[in-house]
Amino acid sequence: MQNVVAEDRPEIGLSVVVLRTADNKAEILRVLAPLGVLLPNGLGLNVDGKDIGRAYFVRCFQDGCYAEVILEQPLLDTLKTGKAATFIVFQTPEEGIGIPVELNGFGEGFAALP
Fold it and tell me: How many Å apart are CA 25 and CA 36, to the nearest integer?
């Protein structure tokens, strides 16, 4: 798990975790965003300046809102070889807030998943 904040907005942070499902059939990238983000816009992802796409929020609890994607091989390879990811949350349809996440060690961490 990695907890990160926006460089220019320290009150906006994310928790990012990769986990394996209980049946060992899939790996999931789960991101916890703060309450108050614009849910219909989803969570954007860029890796090394390349737009990867968006994940949609699946549920919200008192601690925030969760976006999840299954880590299929192309995305997994991108994360393993990438240097920096930027997750983007939206407070308005026009205002995206980029939150940087270093990818150094991602491959090793992924290989060590139980």
Answer: 33
Tokens of 51: 């737009």
* Structure confidence by residue, pLDDT tens digits, 12-49: 899 999 999 999 999 999 999 999 999 999 999 999 99
List C-alpha distances in Å: 59 to 9, 63, 68, 95, 105.
24, 11, 10, 22, 29
How far CA 98 is from CA of 7, 26, 54, 72, 108, in Å, comes to: 8, 27, 13, 23, 25
Predicted pLDDT of residue 26: 94
Q: What are phi and psi of 102, to 5 degrees?
A: -75, 140
CB-CB neighbours of 98 under 10 Å: 16
Whose structure tokens read 């240097």? 83
